[in-house]
Amino acid sequence: DTEVTQTPKHLVMGMTNKKSLKCEQHMGHRAMYWYKQKAKKPPELMFVYSYEKLSINESVPSRFSPECPNSSLLNLHLHALQPEDSALYLCASSQVPGDSNQPQHFGDGTRLSIL
Amino acid sequence: RKEVEQDPGPFNVPEGATVAFNCTYSNSASQSFFWYRQDCRKEPKLLMSVYSSGNEDGRFTAQLNRASQYISLLIRDSKLSDSATYLCVVNKGKLIFGQGTTLQVKP
Question: How far is it, in rounded angstroms, from Cα B29 to Cα B41?
Fold first, then answer.
């Protein structure tokens, strides 16, 4: 069982809908991440939060809006998505921001389909 | 040229075989290295970190050669449950993933 939990597991939404993906970890990790993964491709980094502050935005379109309400929670708000945004969205966390020796631990993802 | 390169495979091997995966990276400033395993439609899971001195975890051995910018993973006595995609990952402040190498272990 993963120690990073993501909800929902599956999400189908229309291009005009607004929805949110949620991620939670209780390992005391202070770095949290959002990745996007298309089929047969590796994960691509979207956002990094360090100590609840956004530290990296990999030029992600504004229709994706991250939020970190506290050290255990990470949200990804979705609005006006496109069909090409259909993918597996993975949340990850690691212990200490900036410590590259710390591995990241992934949640089991939200499989998103845009109609 | 990709920052992290892996042979995508697939590698099809019989149970009990020994199989090795290689990975090269282009950025000499890369700081740490990992192998992750990803099953179909599942999340990546950390298999092992890779240290310069080489490290072993049961049937799995990882090696790092910083001079050649080369990482390897050796799996001995392959099991059916080892079938998965193995991702070579380099951390240079953020994770850079290779494309993954697919392993199929056959009975």
Answer: 32
